[in-house]
Design goal:
This protein is of the alpha+beta class. It is about 20% helix and about 35% strand. The strands form two sheets. Strands 1-4-5-6-3 form a five-stranded antiparallel sheet. Strands 2-7 form a two-stranded antiparallel ribbon. A hairpin with a 6-residue loop joins strand 4 and strand 5. The longest helix has 15 residues. The two termini are about 15 Å apart.
């Protein structure tokens, strides 16, 4: 974790079950790595998934972009950072995966999420006050 509460960093080791016969991580597993970092940063601001649900809003991902710069390999230790960017109209989170030993940037990504009122299923055109209040505290 870092001192900036708008970002969080996790460390993980690429497991055998995530790689192909050449020892390279399958591209689809990256979403799970980003999810772990996203959960860490949201928990850090007090708005993890349980708090989201309890607030009456779901936050589906509406856009997910990934730039694969270098492959991840079996048993490679990596740092996955998630940083909250824009949050006033939608929740944008930027990600970066770096090699834990060298610091080399391996992958970047971004997700965009919108608030959906769970009671009505309506998409909110602006982030609900509960998120704005959490962000004002960081």
């Amino acid at each position: 974790m870092t001192g900036d509460r708008r970002q969080a960093q996790i460390e993980l080791t690429i497991p055998f079950h995530d790689v192909d016969m050449m020892g390279v991580a399958w591209h689809g597993h990256y979403a799970r790595y980003f999810e772990l970092a996203r959960e860490a940063v949201l928990n850090q601001i007090g708005f993890g998934y349980k708090a989201m649900r309890d607030s009456g809003y779901a936050w589906p991902i509406i856009d997910f972009q990934v730039r694969y710069r270098h492959a991840l390999h079996h048993e490679q230790r990596v740092l996955v950072r998630a940083r909250i960017g824009d949050y006033e109209n939608r929740l944008c989170i930027d990600y970066e995966i770096r090699d834990a030993q060298t610091g080399k940037r391996l992958t970047t990504a971004q997700t965009r999420q919108v608030a959906v009122e769970m009671a009505t299923g309506e998409i909110c055109l602006a982030s609900p006050q509960v998120l704005l209040d959490r962000m004002a505290e960081v």
